[in-house]
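[retry 2/3] Polyketide cyclase/dehydrase/lipid transport protein: previous attempt timed out, resubmitting with same input.
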Amino acid sequence: MATVYRDIPVEAAAQDVWAALRDPANVAHVFAGVLTEARMENDLRWVTFADGTVIEERVIGVDDAHMRLAYTVSGGRFEHHHATLQVMQDSPQRCRLVWISDFKPDERIQMVEPLTDAGCAALKRNLARR
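[retry 2/3] Polyketide cyclase/dehydrase/lipid transport protein: success.
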């Protein structure tokens, strides 16, 4: 199983970053520039990427106590895909977001890693204090 692990510093309060991330329907705003749209129905979410690709995800959990969101990717591109996003406070106005994606087949890393890196840049840009 392949893993993509990113630890992203964000110049914003952890509570503010979590407030944006904890709503799974808000994902297109948080990752604007990479995602253009998100639609929710119960625990299923469809996200549209800038290139028009639509991916179905299932939101597994939103954990306010640990500021952690877990989701899986459904569909034919993966045998398995599970990811978590967790916010950790570093200081009153700075936090880190740890994003971990585990998936099979391993070869999908060629697709997942660049999308994750683009998502990290978008997240920092869209959530940083102004």
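[retry 2/3] Polyketide cyclase/dehydrase/lipid transport protein: The longest strand covers residues 80-91.
[retry 2/3] clearing retry counter.
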